[in-house]
Amino acid sequence: MQIKEGTIIDLEGKKLYTYHLDSKTDRMERIILYEFMPQGDFLFPQITIARQGEFEKEVLKLKEVALYRFGKEHRLTQQGKFDSQSIYLNDQLSQKEREWKRNDELSLNRISQKIREEKARENPSSEEIKELGIEFHGRTAMPLATLLFALIAVPLGITMKR
Fold first, then answer.
1. Do residues 67 and 122 share a domain?
2. Which of 22, 44, 59, 132 lies 20 to 30 Å from 53 when distance is taken between CA atoms?
3. Has residue 118 been placed in a domain?
4. pTM for the full model?
5. Residues 28 and 65 in one domain
6. pLDDT tens digits for 57-106?
7. 55-61 long-range CB contacts below 8 Å, 24 or more apart?
8. What is the pLDDT of residues 9-31, one digit of tens each?
9. How many domains does the chain have?
């Protein structure tokens, strides 16, 4: 799961926002979690605010948590404060959704593998092949152009003029 600082992440019925993400430890600080409750008379999402949090496999572990639920008339109906809270996500996310990544999050090897898989299908999606091809070539064009430019420019630059 790709968590980015200052970006709303969709977690199947939940929206996660973090103000600060430590890239070394993947620990989040100042977290807001909006959970849209399917049952009950809730017009607004349940709001969970936590000081710190981190993902451990498919579990979101939050520390210093405040929970707010609003009912009709926009009034606060429930409120709670907790030292910690664990939110299990694996029940809510199917295996395919957990493995799914946007094309710009995939490695070059995975993109080329997906292109081969799509072409091998009985009814290949030309749109998907086109999108994957654009992503693959977009990532390889600049490095290869730079290398080609260096191979041409270096010999021209070192020739001695008489």
1. no
2. 44
3. yes
4. 0.52
5. yes
6. 778 899 999 999 887 777 888 899 999 998 887 654 444 444 556 777 77
7. 55/1, 55/3, 55/26, 57/90, 58/88, 58/89, 58/90, 58/93, 58/98, 59/86, 59/87, 59/88, 59/89, 59/90, 60/16, 60/33, 60/86, 60/87, 60/89, 61/85, 61/86, 61/87
8. 887 778 889 999 888 888 999 99
9. 2
